[in-house]
Structure prediction request, 227 residues.
Amino acid sequence: NAGVTQTPKFRILKIGQSMTLQCTQDMNHNYMYWYRQDPGMGLKLIYYSVGAGITDKGEVPNGYNVSRSTTEDFPLRLELAAPSQTSVYFCASSHGELNQPQHFGDGTRLSIL
Amino acid sequence: AQSVTQLGSHVSVSEGALVLLRCNYSSSVPPYLFWYVQYPNQGLQLLLKYTSAATLVKGINGFEAEFKKSETSFHLTKPSAHMSDAAEYFCAVRITGGGNKLTFGTGTQLKVEL
Prediction:
């Protein structure tokens, strides 16, 4: 009963390094999302995808890239890590219907020093 | 554009007391509204959702919320708080347009005291 799985759970990066945050879901959801959560700010949408091969920017896309080659996987890439990208990152997925909720992973806690 | 506002970033109640967490929405179309709970070091879990079928929505763990169009509110309540309810709670509204995106409130941290 995995749901949405994110790896790694924790990571420390140096400024300028790159990394990929992995997200996979086993619910056959077409829609997937990446958020970042900062204290007192709620969740901000970075990128989203409505199906394999289709991605679009959210509210805060700068400094990030995504791809969606399969229905299950939606990786988030940081190319040149900056201290402002220190955050907790959540991946979510949902069915396409408006009344369906998003299902969240447990997050990746990323620190950039 | 759709948005939600959560009044009170921190709420403290005694165990057994009423829990009331406030959420007001802004939407030019009939909204789809959600409440999520986040326990420490975990992701968000759905508590309940409003999708126009009934104005009083019952969720998990004894929580419920009432949709009031005249007040543009969707407040979350629980008659009797339990220590295990201590968590952060987020209200969210579906954004119209592609992707079924959500916009979230800034969250309310609930503390339950003995």
Notes: The CA atoms of residues 76 and 86 of chain B lie 14 Å apart. Chain B touches chain A at residues 9, 32, 34, 36, 41-46, 49, 51, 90, 94, 98-107 (CB under 8 Å). Chain B has a mean pLDDT of 93. The longest strand of chain B covers residues 19-26.
